[in-house]
Amino acid sequence: MPGEKQTAVRYYVGVDVGSASVRAALVDGFGTVVAHAEQPIQVWEPRPDHYEQSSADIWAACCSVTKEVVRGVDASQIRGLGFDATCSLVVVDKQFQPLAVNSEGQSHRNVIMWMDHRAASQVKRINATQHRVLNYVGGAMSVEMQPPKLLWLKENLPESWEKVGYFFDLPDFLSWKATGVTARSLCTVVCKWTYTSDRGWDDSFWKMIGLEDLVKDKYEKIGSHVLSPGEAVGKGLTPDAARELGLPGGIAVAASLIDAHAGGLGVIGADVKGHNLPCENQPITSRVAMICGTSSCHMGVSETPIFVPGVWGPYFSAMVPGLWLNEGGQSATGKLIDHVVRGHVAFPELEAKAAASAHSIYTYLNSHLDLIKKSLPVGFLTVDLHVWPDFHGNRSPLTDLTLKGMVVGLTLSRGLDELALIYLATIQAIALGTRHILEVMQAAGHDISTLFLCGGLSKNPLFVQMHADITGKPVVLSKEVESVLVGAAILGACASGDFASIQEAMAKMGKIGRVVQPNHEHKRFYDKKYEVFLKLVEHQREYRSIMNS
């Protein structure tokens, strides 16, 4: 009304470092993404299972996208900054200069990516110790966690190892760049480094696996000061970082999160009243957040610790303060779909037809499936085609990185119809893998009624519907597609002091967009598909046993 004083809008910046790009968003206090920018980052694959990046390249991209989203905005309205990133390992010397993580001596390539599997023999040795810390990672450590990668570096690159000043999880590297403070986030050290919120670091574990040198100086190299996600780091943004990012100096910078956990934060706490969902009027523990992009993560929380075989955790306060987190996952989902589609002989035809129709290749494939289904439901087209999706090993719940992908039901046909069918069968296999993870979590004590999806794959309606139909659970999609960025901004909002808690910020900034219900008439078909799915891995293990006998 004229004459009334209006309160200035408060903004928060969320920065998300994914596997292939860096994104930033300007988000208001209601969780609305006001501005968004993205920039690709470089990935090196010098040999199979080795994936590397550059921390300098990543930080430059962070600065570029942040400047873009705050351009033209009154600096006094920007209240806080939050980072999330993949759980990749950053290696720097005592002067914080990059150190090579490769035999070529390329020091600018100083990041071992989360999906790097070079430390397979090291993780096998670590798991053979059966140390008590392994109870908190589902009973067996993943090759994607940091201890095996650290051991690989010590054994294979002694020159770099001797020069190391600090090892950072990538989310912590970013908060250090912004503040000059080497504090680590409870999320990263608990989920990927074996730290526990009650006991801290376990000296006996590091000594047992041959990394006793990290115990020196109160673990300074890997983290002697740990903060809860969303807690303010140091004195805020340094003048140098402020200039590079295009932000006001001194604004609050939050202790960071791993990218999947930021996605969970952005969706799992949303108000569901009026949507007729089974989780309405139920605790947040009845929900699972599924963050699906290059890989997928399945985040479930509980009030007491639940030990789930083959599922990471329980981790206390690693995502939602005061609650225990279990984290299931699939190492390759978006990457797998891309691999299967782009590797098919009919891909050039698909690419040309999609371009001619001004659609993405996946929108075109979804439309093509509708054309060939005739009177059948789309999902029933794969009655004779089955995929086991572990082309990059199994993270959960089998924790077997040696498992391989399988396709059963191939013919000599090479056209677009066959490409569409193998695409559909791959999406179904990923959803069947999710069902496998959820069943194991439920058998251990979780009570899950509703899935909350975010990430790139949640934009694909076929992917979403298959997850609803195959799990038999409703799928909630957030109003803001970029839920991971909203999660990062929630961190910045908490660090600013504008919200009393992460829970309050989650409820106010997380918004529901759409609900996708399962088609229960298809249950019998997908129960049979699931039975076949489990038989596939049985057969793989049988033929391995024969070949190795």
From TrEMBL:
GO terms for molecular function: D-ribulokinase activity. Residues 289-495 form the Carbohydrate kinase FGGY C-terminal domain. This is FGGY carbohydrate kinase domain-containing protein. Keywords: Kinase, Transferase. GO terms for biological process: pentose metabolic process. One of its GO terms (cellular component) is cytoplasm. The gene is Fggy. Belongs to the FGGY kinase family. It comes from Rhadina sibilatrix. The keyword Kinase applies. InterPro entries: ATPase_NBD (IPR043129), Carb_kinase_FGGY (IPR000577), FGGY_C (IPR018485), FGGY_N (IPR018484), FGGY_RbtK-like (IPR006003). Residues 11-266 form the Carbohydrate kinase FGGY N-terminal domain. Pfam families: FGGY_C, FGGY_N.
